[in-house]
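Input (structure):
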């Protein structure tokens, strides 16, 4: 007989000891109980992944477990929050134990890596849908918002752009591409938690790049009431992305492709020396609204449009 709801929860998700000191009570009661010191605020976020919208039906369940947690932790990173607890709402068409084991292994391995406890959730039957809600702690008043960028600030990204977008193209059948690292970026993005923590008191605004640099930097610019110029020559690109651009002449990939989950942030000139090593300055904030790119000696306007559901 197939595993029932309660056995399933016990077998795959419950029973690990709580790791983070803020968590008092985890899975097993009607609610979890979390205790935060008064000096902290809670940053809360939720993201849903739906089969055939956010992932392919034949995706490796271990990678899927990793990714659904990673995209949520990435939102906490973008706020400068330290993750401590997550919940998981699972809707499954059927109980496939091998699939669930892979999913739980991928999810729990990443949770352990960042000392995040799975403290509760919900399990239902229906079309395959995964929702994670993540909670992070940030000292009062120190969260990194989208709205703080000012003219003259420098713009940074935490790592290479377009890798995950290339990985997606490879998954969709792009021929001839050697995409080891690109596939890794697409399947198993790493949330930039340490960088987010290091940016408290340094960055004036921050966002994680889920929809492409142009769209996500566009959110910072809009919410801060400013504009920006970025430099094509300064964008960090991996060797496979450079090769893709050279052979396809689609140079917009690193600007428009999502799923990299690097951080994009702005920093006042005076704080530039405090930016963590490995981040790349790609441009500057200006008073004039809109997003522009300096490329081959010319300045062009960029359309900042990411993927929108229902659009
Ligand atoms: P209730 O009916 O009170 O909502 P449930 O029967 O849904 O409780 O869940 C029992 C316990 O298992 C709760 O603590 C709930 O948070 C937890 N739980 C249920 N599904 C999951 C899941 N997919 N991952 C983690 N915890 C879960
Ligand atoms: Mg329930």
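Output (sequence):
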């Amino acid at each position: 007989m197939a595993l029932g709801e309660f056995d399933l929860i016990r077998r795959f998700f419950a029973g690990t000891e709580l790791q983070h000191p803020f968590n008092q009570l985890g899975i097993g009661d009607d609610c979890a109980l979390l205790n935060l010191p008064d000096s902290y605020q809670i940053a809360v976020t939720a993201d849903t992944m739906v089969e055939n919208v956010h992932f392919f039906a034949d995706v490796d369940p271990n990678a899927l477990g990793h990714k659904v947690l990673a995209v949520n932790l990435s939102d906490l990173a973008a706020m400068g929050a330290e993750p401590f607890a997550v919940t998981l709402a699972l809707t499954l068409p059927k109980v496939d134990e091998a699939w669930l084991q892979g999913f739980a292994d991928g999810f729990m391995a990443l949770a352990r890596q960042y000392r995040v406890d799975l403290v509760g959730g919900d399990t239902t039957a229906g079309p395959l849908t995964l929702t994670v809600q993540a909670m992070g702690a940030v000292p009062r008043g120190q969260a990194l918002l989208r709205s703080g960028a000012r003219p003259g600030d420098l713009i940074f990204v935490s790592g290479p752009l377009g890798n995950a977008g290339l990985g997606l193209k490879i998954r969709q059948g792009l021929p001839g591409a050697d995409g080891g690292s690109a596939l890794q970026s697409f399947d198993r993005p790493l949330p930039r938690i340490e960088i987010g923590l290091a940016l408290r008191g340094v960055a004036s605004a921050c966002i994680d790049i889920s929809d492409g640099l142009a769209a996500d930097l566009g959110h910072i610019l809009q919410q801060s009431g400013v504009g920006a110029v970025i430099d094509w020559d300064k964008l960090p690109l991996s060797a496979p992305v450079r090769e893709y651009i050279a052979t396809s002449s689609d140079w917009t990939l690193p600007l428009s492709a999502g799923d990299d989950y690097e951080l994009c942030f702005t920093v006042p000139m005076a704080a530039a020396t405090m930016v963590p090593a490995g981040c790349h300055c790609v441009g500057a904030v200006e008073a004039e609204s809109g997003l522009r790119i300096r490329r081959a000696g010319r300045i062009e306007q960029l359309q900042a449009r990411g993927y929108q559901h229902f659009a």
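Notes: Residues 122 surround magnesium ion (ligand 2) (CB under 6 Å). The mean pLDDT is 94.
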